[in-house]
Specification:
Distance between the termini of chain A: 41 Å
Number of helices of chain B: 0
Oligomer: heterodimer
Structural class of chain A: mainly beta
Number of strands of chain B: 11
Radius of gyration of chain B: 13 Å
Largest interface: A-B, 26 and 29 residues
Shape of chain B: globular
Shape of chain A: globular
Largest sheet of chain B: 7 strands, mixed
Strand content of chain A: over 45%
Helix content of chain B: under 10%
Chain lengths: ~110, ~110
């Protein structure tokens, strides 16, 4: 069974610093990996999706990498802003149907 | 594109009562998913539909839970004889019927069982 782990569980950085969020998974036979953002009491917003054949995806200040052989994905957020404060979750899919296995998330606080 | 809509946003019920949640996916999204999330944890898969067909159910979905998607549009999730352990955020998501596509989540229904 696929297990997804995110460490650390919480992270606090001053505004302007780059954020590095880690995600590890046990089964390297993933179909794709997604990163989501969740604000308190709200649903999830998809940030980036990396297909298994890809090494990275970029959107604005966000960049996500994927290394299947080591079972790791990293989300980089450049020049963090207080509005980036949220919980970030990664999720791995091991089939094409979109069933996701989530990590518990990393709670990020960006202080002004 | 109005996004995935879930109703109600919050539900408070007494133990033993039945509750029903509704999810309206993004129009023309053939796939619909239900997840459950407890505090401090990531969402856990419950079940999903391709059009009106329910294709997979998690072992988390006991026989007190039932999900339907009549006509392949909106979906309902019913919990019978609720228990305090059912308290959670119930999230619905949809995606196009294309392999490897992003999932779009609704804002969820927060259930509290007293």
């Amino acid at each position: 069974k696929q297990e997804v782990t995110q460490i650390p569980a919480a992270l606090s950085v001053p505004e302007g610093e780059n954020l590095v969020l880690n995600c590890s998974f046990t089964d390297s036979a993933i179909y794709n990996l997604q990163w989501f953002r969740q604000d308190p009491g709200k649903g999830l917003t998809s940030l980036l999706l990396i297909q298994s054949s890809q090494r990275e995806q970029t959107s604005g200040r966000l960049n996500a990498s994927l290394d299947k052989s080591s079972g790791r994905s990293t989300l980089y957020i450049a020049a963090s802003q207080p509005g980036d404060s949220a919980t970030y979750l990664c999720a791995a899919s091991t089939d094409s149907w979109g069933k996701l296995q989530f990590g518990a998330g990393t709670q990020v606080v960006v202080t002004p | 594109d109005t996004g995935v809509s879930q109703d109600p946003r919050h539900k408070i019920t007494k133990r033993g009562q039945n509750v029903t949640f509704r999810c309206d996916p993004i129009s023309e999204h053939n796939r619909l998913y239900w997840y459950r999330q407890t505090l401090g944890q990531g969402p856990e898969f419950l079940t999903y539909f391709q059009n009106e067909a329910q294709l997979e159910k998690s072992r988390l979905l006991s026989d007190r839970f039932s999900a339907e998607r009549p006509k392949g549009s909106f979906s309902t999730l019913e919990i019978q004889r609720t228990e305090q352990g059912d308290s959670a955020m119930y999230l619905c998501a949809s995606s196009p019927a294309l392999d490897g596509e992003k999932l779009f989540f609704g804002s969820g229904t927060q259930l509290s069982v007293l």
